[in-house]
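Researcher: I'd like a structural prediction for the single chain below. Treat it as a standalone chain; there are no partners to consider.
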Amino acid sequence: MAQYFNEPSRTFNEYLLIPGYSSKECRVENVSLRTPLVKFKKGEEPALSMNIPLVSAVMQAVSDDKMAVALAKEGGISFIFGSQPIESQVEMIKRAKDTKAGFVTSDANIRPDQTLKDLLELKERTGHSTTAVTEDGTADGKLIGLVTSRDYRVSRMSPDTKIEEFMTPFEKLVYAESGVTLSEANDILWDNKLNALPIVDKNQRLTHFVFRKDYDSHKANPNELLDHHKRYIVGAGINTRDYEERIPALVEAGVDVICIDSSEGFSEWQTDTLKFVREKYGDTVKIGAGNVVDGDGFRYLAEAGADFIKIGIGGGSICITREQKGIGRGQASAVQDVAKARNKFFEETGIYIPICSDGGIVYDYHMTLALAMGADFIMLGRYFARFDEAPGQRVNLNGSYVKEYWGEGSARARNWQRYDMGGDKKLSFEEGVDSYVPYAGKLSDNVRQSLQKVKSTMCNCGILTIPELQKNAKMTLVSATSIVEGGAHDVITKETTGSGSNR
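Model: Treating it as a single chain, here is the predicted structure.
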């Protein structure tokens, strides 16, 4: 006979936190959101932790190298999408790792035969005032010169003026050769009072820039997540098909952690992938697995060797797996069940395996609920897709700016590997949609505001750390009427300024 779960499958929206005693120490500035990323033994420290409990989803519309850098600056990790050729994913990893090392790949480049008009259009697109002039207009072309805002005056020059007529030529540039250390490059910057230092190889081809503004980066981003080489920590998604080729390439590129990206993780495909990693790398390569929605799924992946385990099937804003297949579980119920299994596994083995809630977050307060229910960190897709740093295009839709956002199970992504259960190498039917999300600006502003709410709520509960929240939080189920009561009601509002939704 089939097994039935008689308790309703619940969502985060059906719960509220009960306030607790708040001492004078319960202030936002005293709250720590540091959380483990990978498994560790009782009494030991995890090999990888995060300063904030947020990671970005393994999606084409969310996680590339720009997102990786932006999120690492805030203290979280981005898992660069794996539904792309191995070579291009490797390049994204390298660019993200090189960025914090101070060596930034130029994304503002122009040819010497182009015009001032072209330069101004490029500046408008990129927002950069320093532009490399290369022979072919590429980021790794032969460096011919440099253009900064000091080299031209729009009011006194024709838009048709050639770049080569007003650029600072290579012969007059201060530059450094490949192999220079970051410390040496910074000394050159300061000694010569420069804002930007180009790095070239022996053939005069541009490789990177070092910018003076990056020198004080840590002061502006005290939570930034760095490896032992002072580079940003970066994650990457993989599938269960080409892992034997993809994983070694990602490891060689410097990836810090990988994650199996699958709509359903309770499978032999994931066991094979985890076994490959352990046999080839032991415990040196950190790998997460999932997704699962119950204790049995957690136990299976835990015993298979996963470093963290993701929870959630069908709860994403653009995921239609439940609609198409009739499988899944309300995210709150799934997190609670898996958290119980995680705690039991810890009691039995002395090994703590972090769990990640993936999906179901509509409002900022849902983040706090997910953590209180036992999640160590949260994976977000739609939330991050709204920001400047996400890969999706920003477009004007009916007078409002939006960002493109599409699911990995959509026809646009065609990520058949994520939904692979054997058989034909194609996406048989869609499990995601192609959509838009409201444009929300810079990642840093939004993340800091969201986490300010999380910290404030924790203070209301008399709690200062995530482990304390998991242990001591008090929650109550809410009725449909109390949900209505919790918002503005029985009044005529003057304006809408946002109610905590991150939609």
